[in-house]
Amino acid sequence: MDKRIYLCLAHMSGKEQDFIKEAFDTNWVVPLGPNVNAFEEELKHFVGRNKEVVALSAGTAAIHLALIQLGVQAGDEVICQSFTFCASANPVNYQGATPVFVDSEEDTWNMSPTLLEEAVRDRIAKTGKKPKAIIPVHLYGMPAKIDEICAIAARYDIPVLEDAAEALGSEFMGRKCGTFGQFGVLSFNGNKMITTSGGGALIVPNEEAKKKTMFYATQAREPFPYYQHEKIGYNYRMSNICAGIGRGQMTVLNEHIAHHRRIHELYKLAFADVDGIELKSNPDERFNANYWLSTILIDKNVTGFDYEELRIALDAKGIETRPLWKPMHLQPIFANSPRYVDGTAEKLFNRGLCIPAGPCVTDEDAAYIVREIKKCMKK
Ligand SMILES: *Cc1c(COP(=O)(O)O)cnc(C)c1O
């Protein structure tokens, strides 16, 4: 094969340029405008539950603005899922607060409700105050055990900030990920379910929270004719050009999700009879992952290779793969953060690999990838 198969390439519907052209034609080349409003409306309709949505410059910015609205300040603690991309936890540090890392459970690879409760209790006992927020993640688009997590959060009256950056379209019991917590985060970076070339959104509970989010996202300007500032603000709004790309992408979002699920299904059939390779799938019928990336666990004792040996072998065959996220509690930058871990995320990290899944991966590509993996095993 001479083409290279990437993990998750952006895929355009063709309509993006029409929305961008319209923005140019009407001179809305600014960080607000008709595309931003329409994109927000479409997202609001997509996620449902009467939520409001604010389009922002990045998913990371969305997490930051949610933490600000939850009152997270220097000296506070925020509970974070350890098994994730660094952007889930970094904004906690922007606020001068401390992330407290909680390990994953095996069913979903996401925040363990058992360890979460242990962490909440222990932090209260040790510091005399409650963590300010809980940030579970729906990693690789697999819904976390969000019902149990929200129940624990409610018991201790701690708000939940759901990181659904990888989980646009994923559902738990028929309800979209990102709508369970007080706030939900989406990302439209280049390799996510849809792209705006770079961007994100905050799902908020009501119109008031939407106004507040927009206030902080546009330099916290007070309602005076001159520029009056009483709070520290940010420049986090999405541009009308990027939102134009988003509107084009919304026309193919459901197709993208269906495609990711279809590729996962092809892998599932193909790996069913392969010992030593375990494809991650929905643990039961309550979970409906978007399968943003398909992921496998490798049992080296059976296959004879580990994830890194497989990654290098597939790379030589034109197939891009990637190790699973390295847990935050193992990152040098977070060496001093408190942690409640039982080794689950570390074990997954040491055994796993992400394999291509995006809209540009064809059925033949999937078959080729499986064939190449099986060939490695015969050696
Ligand atoms: C991509 C991602 C983010 C951040 O989104 P950006 O739009 O890249 O800032 C946050 N959390 C997770 C889990 C992500 O994968």
From TrEMBL:
The keyword DNA repair does not apply. GO terms for biological process: polysaccharide biosynthetic process. The keyword Ribonucleoprotein does not apply. Gene3D superfamilies: Aspartate Aminotransferase, domain 1, Type I PLP-dependent aspartate aminotransferase-like (Major domain). The active site is at residue 192. It comes from the Bacteria. GO terms for molecular function: pyridoxal phosphate binding; transaminase activity. Keywords: Pyridoxal phosphate. The modification N6-(pyridoxal phosphate)lysine is found at residue 192. PANTHER family: DTDP-4-AMINO-4,6-DIDEOXYGALACTOSE TRANSAMINASE (PTHR30244:SF34), TRANSAMINASE (PTHR30244). Belongs to the DegT/DnrJ/EryC1 family. This is dTDP-4-amino-4,6-dideoxygalactose transaminase. It comes from Bacteroides stercorirosoris. The lineage of its organism: Bacteria, Pseudomonadati, Bacteroidota, Bacteroidia, Bacteroidales.
